[in-house]
Design goal:
Layout: H1 2-52, E1 55-59, E2 64-68, E3 73-78, E4 83-85, E5 88-90, E6 94-101, E7 104-106, E8 109-110, E9 113-118, E10 126-130
Antiparallel strand pairs: 1-2, 1-8, 2-3, 3-4, 4-5, 6-7, 6-9, 9-10
Length: 140
């Protein structure tokens, strides 16, 4: 009877240690999935706004990307550890941000593309979003 109890306790102990390892692994997978989902949502939001609005400007002083149309204005505020778009907050840290207009780098004013890298937490993934300019962009 004692031998059976000892063997049972060993098997149960091994089962709990395997269960703990599986739970840690699943937690890591869930965290990576959440981070990738948040980055995909930000990239999709930027794509939609880049192609929805007629004018896009970058304000270097406030570190803001401002989308303007005849009806609405949307602003992306880049902070150190997050990006805010109206009521949405993306907990994504960015660096090496480059802005472009008509293929040339710019630091302020009108833009038609943005490129940045995420932090190490997001595996330094690059994000590049652009829009096709129409004739209205070059008229003024």
């Amino acid at each position: 009877m004692i031998v059976v109890i000892i063997l049972t306790s060993i098997v149960v102990g091994m089962a709990f240690s395997v269960l703990t390892l599986v739970q840690r692994h699943m937690s890591g997978i869930q965290n990576n999935f959440n981070k990738n989902t948040e980055l995909n949502i930000l990239e999709q939001s930027l794509w939609l706004d880049f192609n929805r609005y007629s004018e896009i400007e970058y304000n270097m002083i406030n570190d803001e990307l401002i989308f303007t149309s005849d009806v609405k204005t949307t602003t992306y505020k880049f902070a150190t550890d997050y990006i805010v778009k109206e009521l949405d907050t993306f907990n994504i840290s960015t660096h090496n941000k480059l802005l472009f207009f008509d293929g040339d780098k710019t630091t302020n004013g009108r833009v038609d593309a943005i490129k940045f890298e995420t932090s190490k937490t997001f595996q330094n993934q690059p994000v590049f979003v652009f829009k096709q300019n129409d004739a209205n962009q070059f008229m003024n």
